[in-house]
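Ticket #4471: structure output looks truncated?

Reporter: J.K.
Steps to reproduce: submitted the chain below (192 residues) through the standard prediction queue, then opened the result file.
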Amino acid sequence: SRDLERRLQETSQEVNQLRSNLEKVREEAMTDALTGIANRKRFDESMRKSRREADLTGSPFSLVLCDIDHFKSVNDRYGHGVGDRVIKLVASTLEDACTAQFVGRWGGEEFIVIMPSSDIATVIKRLNQARQTLADTKFKLRETDEPMGLISFSGGVALAVGGKQANVTALQQADKALYRAKDEGRNCILSA
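Returned output as attached by the reporter:
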């Protein structure tokens, strides 16, 4: 009886450890390794949740695509290590500005934000605060103290109303607004 009890307790501890390990692996699979923010897989999950909520409430939400301006020149001039630090910096700036909202790395030097707001002006204001904070900072190369110049990002905002196709359309609209922001001089946020 004691032996069975001991083995049952050991088995229970093993099961708990396996659950803990599984949760850790699941979290790692949903997190961008470089920035520590959500990755595309977590975005898909968050998008499904936002879409369900929009379908239930009838309230649209905002999708934002952001892209670091002139990122290729940062990598070319300073190397990929500095480029990685810039990506991490922009990720943390967006996270700080968009507290309690979904912020994820879309890919490369692009980020995506989901805000449960249909007030585009408020969304743009919030993102502009992050953009301005970043643009106002005088960055220097850690290794040589050389000024790096302007580090900024551009963004495109669109409303998503729920429903899979409507959200695909909203992503396309946010992407078009982002490219318009790039075409209009960068370092700005535009809506679809």
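Triage note (M.O.): checked the attachment and the full token line is present. The CA atoms of residues 35 and 91 lie 7 Å apart.
Status: closed, working as intended.
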